[in-house]
Amino acid sequence: MYPPEVWQILQHDNVYGFGLTYFKERRGVVYRSDKPVVVFFVGRKLPPHMVPKEFLVPPRLVVGRVQAITDVVEVGGRVSGSPSSSPLPLQTDRFRPLRSGVSGCAYSGDACTITGPFVDQNGQMYMLTNAHCAGRINFSCEIANAAGNPVLQPSPFDGGVYPNDAIGRISWSSGQELLSGQTNRDIAVIILEPYVSALPYLADTGYVQNGQIRDPSMQDIGATVVKSGRTSGLTFGMIYALNATVKTYYNACGTSVVTNAVATTQMIEEGDSGSGLYGIDGTFLGLFFATSDSYSFAIPAGRVQELGLTPVKAIPPQVPISLAVSV
């Protein structure tokens, strides 16, 4: 989709990624362009004389068959998919039944977030988190062969212990793909134990899953979205760019280039990895996996659909969704 010069620019140490949007900044003011914009995410903006010629961003690019303009924005620090030790007291509790946005990860991990429930065609129930939450990544990298790892809710850092707080095990993970250096998914699937139930509610919110799942489209750029996560709880944001590629730092597991991501305004913090990205109508749009100080990044929902999973729909009586949304 992107021309070779875009991938060349990504090789610069100051460039963390790129994506496709309609937003552009001019003299400090962000406006919506009538043309597609290839936006480059950088650590800090540099004057042209400090950038080698082969890494200069051209004013225009051809993406597919479409003429696009370009922009450069600062991400406010490197993009990280690290776990966290910073708790939000409510969502680090032990939840039974389970729900989206609460603390949970592999028994050998630190602290992440679980999202769901989801169901396959046979009616089996699952929760989701990130592949980098399916094993230890802080001081050693243990995500390559995560299938079978017990999952605790709450996470070990938040007091979860095995076997008392075990909710299931990792049935599938893309951890090996992360270690290859480039992937389009950071997903781990948790198959629940028969005695563990889950509700299709976003923890500490009035939001529910509506049973719908889809990838965001270019028409969604600028749309308000919501998430519930272990560290920062309920947050609102805006879809900023699609088809994003981002260099993501995974502690002892190194850096991987994650492609085809959804970029939002900053919505998650460390420990929110594995939080679901939802439309304000409850549609599942993706799974957050990394953030900087200014932008957050999610795997689009299509990667979950490819695994044969569908979000469970909340049945009446539902908790009404508030119309008072601020970004």
In short:
This protein is mostly beta strands and 327 residues long.
Description:
This protein is mainly beta and 327 residues long. The chain has 2 domains: 4-74, no CATH class; 78-327, Trypsin-like serine proteases (Thrombin, subunit H, Beta Barrel). 5% of the residues lie in helices and 41% in strands.
Shape: globular
Query: Terminal Cα separation, in Å?
Result: 31 Å
Number of strands: 21
CATH class of the largest domain: Mainly Beta
Helices, strands, pairings?
Layout lengths: L3 H7 L4 E12 L2 E14 L17 E4 L2 E9 L23 E3 L1 E2 L1 E2 L6 E7 L5 E5 L20 E3 L13 E8 L1 H5 L2 E2 L4 E5 L5 E5 L21 E6 L3 E17 L5 E11 L10 E4 L4 E8 L3 E6 L1 H4 L4 E2 L16
List the defining traits of the structure above.
327 residues, mainly beta, Thrombin, subunit H, 2 domains, eight-stranded antiparallel sheet, six-stranded antiparallel barrel, 21 strands, 5% helix, globular, disordered C terminus
